[in-house]
Design brief:
The chain is built from 14 helices and no strands. By secondary structure, it is an all-alpha fold. It is globular, with a radius of gyration of 18 Å.
């Protein structure tokens, strides 16, 4: 247990480092976007390549992709029901800010640090399905609800997905795994060196981007959204761990994914739909703190 707490404490320490460095002026607030590009397009992609390489995959493991997608769809429904009496504006906000999981920038480093390659593969497969929600699915539904026109547009979703380097890497490496193929060893070693930086870069990025805003009158909305999100997440995590017929490493990975924070892109989509960006940022940042605690407790219990 002590080793897990120390390891998790190091993650928190890196987040605090990023937060402090931003506040003393070492990083500008806009540097978050640069760090985000490095993590998403370089270190995360390299980590995916390294952890998928040489791994064989069973067809049944594709269920993890389906679970990632269905969990997002379920949470969209929860968000719509949660604010059904508050009007379209609030419904739209809840749909965006309660669905989708921050896998690549948050859950993945925990999987790398505690579960190893098999756990990373499981988290990656879940994220394939989750990406359809995070990268435009929830935004399209929220826009449809807010405008009231009843038109769901798939084009923005597929446009975003086609430009998602991690998702394309997931798909490519999954195909290789099913075909029992592997990339050349020099490429794997090169990716391994870069991928080893993913945990540090992702946690540092979270610290640099950590931001609480909004006003005290919105505390009720923050509590309502986060308590609902994590109540559902905990129930899914418990059900996955105790009842699914998957290997232990996959069930442990699912626990981490269901306890992951709200998708980091949610505030950007909220601003795009002219929603309350400050409230969205507060919900997102607080979800990171809650997830750190819940995932650390879960790892202490599971490992």
């Amino acid at each position: 247990m002590g080793e897990i707490l120390v390891h998790a404490g190091c993650f928190v320490g890196i987040i605090l480092l990023g937060y402090v460095l931003r506040n003393i002026g070492f990083f500008a607030e806009d540097d978050f976007h640069v760090l985000s590009k490095i993590v998403v397009k370089i270190t995360l992609t390299a980590a995916i390549i390294t952890n998928f390489s040489g791994r064989e995959m069973e067809t049944s493991m594709l269920l993890l992709m389906v679970m990632g997608f269905l969990f997002g769809v379920f949470m969209i429904g929860v968000g719509a029901v949660l604010y059904r009496k508050r009007g379209r504006e609030h419904q739209s906000f809840a749909i965006l800010n309660i669905s989708g999981c921050n896998i690549g920038n948050f859950a993945m480093p925990f999987a790398q640090g505690f579960l190893g390659p098999v756990g990373v593969m499981a988290v990656s497969l879940f994220d394939c399905g989750n990406s359809f929600i995070c990268m435009g699915g929830s935004c399209s539904v929220a826009d449809m609800v807010k405008s009231g026109n009843g038109k769901f547009d798939f084009r923005p979703i597929f446009k975003r997905l086609s430009k998602s380097i991690p998702l394309l890497t997931y798909v490519f490496m999954t195909i290789l795994a099913f075909c029992h193929l592997s990339l050349p060893q020099p490429i794997i070693e090169y990716a391994g060196i870069i991928g080893n930086a993913n945990v540090f870069m992702a946690m540092l990025m979270i610290g640099v981007g950590f931001h609480l805003s909004g006003d005290r009158e919105q505390i009720g909305d923050i509590v309502k959204i986060l308590s609902t999100r994590y109540l559902v997440g905990i129930l899914f995590a418990l059900a996955s761990y105790f009842f699914l017929p998957f290997p232990l490493e996959y069930r442990q990975a699912l626990v981490i994914t269901f306890l992951a924070p709200i998708a980091s892109i949610a505030p950007a989509f909220t601003a795009e739909l002219k929603g309350d960006f400050g409230l969205s940022s507060a919900v997102n940042s607080l979800s990171i703190l809650i997830s750190i605690v819940l995932i650390t407790v879960a790892l202490v219990v599971m490992l």
